[in-house]
């Protein structure tokens, strides 16, 4: 394939945008080469600036669950835009999407809309601290909750139980309040709680991890977390920015039949516009300003275009619940097909899948946490990524990302993809 125009556009971008991108993973640093510039997209396909067609397995990192330029969503945005794009005043559509979201998701009474998943998680943690009167939080290594300071934390050294900053600019003072646990390791969480008795406000987790590849929660791990939280007066925050409205109408809470205390949303809930949200029962949500003392605000929060896109998206999902089964079936088909051709070509691999999230890891061992995810062969992944790209299949440019299956994918697309994997496997 020819990427001349993409490369030229990237060179221009680099002169005025740091690294040429507005979010680091887009820059292809993990796989090498120069990023693809998108011109437009429709359904399951991206069309780049050089005229190449690519089958899209990123789908804007999740939001485009029904495919690109999905008409009901696009039309809702166009209609709204003609009536004014922002007021900074209440509008009826905010209540409509809130009512719908509350009806779809278990165990929430109220929801507050923000502009990104980062904002949702940051605000959820503030609310948990304000509600419990405690300062510390537990997060899991490899889980991503956006780029706010409290989450940019890596494991501390040796016996130190608190984390240390993993980005310059995050202070030691902030890092000391974030404790880092191993995903799928309940003993580890238990130890952290014991060592920080009565200090932990919340545990925040991706109920299915999607930011270190796709990692399902083991057996009763989430139940055990729920029980630990109840026993120690700790709020359980499900970061469902990726899983919300994707794994089921009610997200992972519904899929695993476990209630979280606060739930964060993003991605699908905005239908491709910048939206995040966090939600909980009244007793918790009523602590938020202007009802309560915990401050949180946003000039563009509840923006009419964003709400129109989100409402149209949630309506489609709510009225067509079979979409979730269909997505899971397509993903299972892809899983089976990829596993078959990788096996036939003797490529060491392991595949993780939950619903419409799937990831291919180039390692024999099971991938259950950040440590095991990091063991995958990155050189193999790079060759795999560029090989697929050359075949017209676009997966995330990093071994630590999930593929997001969209309902716009046909079985012909899936067969095309499996054939592409077979071709590439011969070069690995
Ligand atoms: C994408 C993501 C976020 C951050 O959302 P942004 O909209 O990029 O700020 C937070 N949590 C999870 C689980 C995510 O996948």
Key terms:
Aspartate Aminotransferase, domain 2; 14 helices; 15% strand; transaminase activity; pyridoxal phosphate binding; EC 5.4.3.8; alpha/beta; seven-stranded mixed sheet; 16 strands; Aspartate Aminotransferase, domain 1; 2 domains; 428 residues; four-stranded mixed sheet; Aminotrans_3_PPA_site
Structure notes:
The protein is an alpha/beta fold and 428 residues long. It has 2 domains: 4-69 and 322-425, Aspartate Aminotransferase, domain 1 (Alpha-Beta Complex); 71-319, Type I PLP-dependent aspartate aminotransferase-like (Major domain) (Aspartate Aminotransferase, domain 2), CATH 3.40.640.10. Helix content is 38%, strand content 15%. It has helices spanning 4-16, 71-81, 92-104, 117-132, 172-175, 186-195, 221-231, 251-256, 282-285, 304-319, 322-344, 370-374, 378-391, 411-425; strands at residues 38-42, 45-48, 53-56, 110-114, 136-140, 153-154, 164-165, 178-181, 200-205, 235-239, 262-265, 276-280, 350-354, 357-361, 393-394, 403-404. The strands form 4 sheets. The protein has a 7-stranded mixed β-sheet, with helices on both faces. It has a 4-stranded mixed β-sheet with strand order 1-2-3-15. A hairpin with a 4-residue loop joins β2 and β3 (53-56). The longest helix has 23 residues, at 322-344. It starts with a helix and ends with a helix. The chain binds pyridoxal-5'-phosphate. The site of pyridoxal-5'-phosphate has 16 residues, from α4. Pyridoxal-5'-phosphate is lined by residues 61, 116-118, 121, 144-146, 206, 210-211, 239, 241-242, 266, 276.
């Amino acid at each position: 394939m020819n990427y001349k125009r993409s490369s030229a556009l990237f060179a221009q971008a680099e002169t005025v945008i740091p690294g040429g991108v507005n979010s680091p993973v887009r820059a292809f640093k993990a796989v090498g080469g120069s990023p693809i510039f998108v011109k437009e997209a429709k359904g399951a396909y991206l069309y780049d600036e050089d005229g190449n067609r690519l089958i899209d397995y990123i789908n804007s990192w999740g939001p485009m669950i029904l495919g690109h330029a999905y008409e009901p969503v696009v039309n809702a945005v166009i209609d709204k835009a003609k009536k004014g794009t922002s007021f900074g005043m209440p509008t009826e559509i905010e209540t409509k999407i809130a009512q719908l979201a509350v009806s779809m998701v278990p165990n929430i009474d109220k929801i507050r809309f923000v502009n990104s998943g980062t904002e949702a998680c940051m605000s959820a943690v503030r609310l948990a601290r304000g509600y419990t009167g405690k300062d510390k939080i537990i997060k899991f290594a490899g889980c991503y909750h956006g780029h706010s300071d409290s989450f940019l934390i890596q494991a501390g050294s040796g016996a130190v139980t608190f984390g240390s900053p993993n980005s310059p600019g995050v202070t030691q003072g902030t890092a000391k309040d974030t404790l880092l646990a191993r995903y799928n390791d309940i003993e580890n969480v238990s130890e952290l709680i014991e060592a920080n008795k009565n200090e932990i406000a919340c545990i925040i987790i991706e109920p299915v991890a999607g930011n270190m590849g796709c990692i399902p929660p083991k057996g009763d791990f989430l139940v055990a977390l729920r029980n630990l939280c109840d026993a120690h007066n700790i709020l359980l925050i499900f970061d469902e920015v990726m899983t919300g409205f994707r794994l089921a109408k009610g997200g992972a809470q519904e899929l695993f039949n476990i209630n979280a205390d606060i739930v964060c949303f993003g991605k699908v809930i905005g239908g491709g516009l910048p939206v995040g949200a966090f939600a909980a029962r009244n007793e918790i949500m009523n602590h938020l300003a202007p009802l309560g003392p915990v401050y949180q605000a946003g000039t563009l929060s509840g923006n009419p275009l964003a709400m129109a896109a989100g409402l149209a998206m949630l309506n489609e999902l709510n009225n067509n619940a079979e979409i979730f089964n269909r997505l899971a079936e397509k993903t299972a088909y892809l899983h089976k097909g990829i596993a078959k051709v990788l096996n036939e070509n003797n490529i060491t691999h392991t595949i993780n899948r939950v619903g419409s999230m799937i990831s291919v890891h180039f390692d024999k061992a099971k991938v259950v946490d950040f440590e095991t995810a990091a063991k995958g062969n990155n050189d193999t992944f790079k060759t795999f990524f560029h090989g697929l790209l050359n075949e017209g299949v676009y997966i995330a440019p990093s071994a630590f990302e999930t593929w997001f299956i969209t309902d716009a994918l046909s079985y012909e697309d899936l067969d095309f993809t499996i054939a592409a994997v077979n071709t590439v496997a011969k070069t690995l």
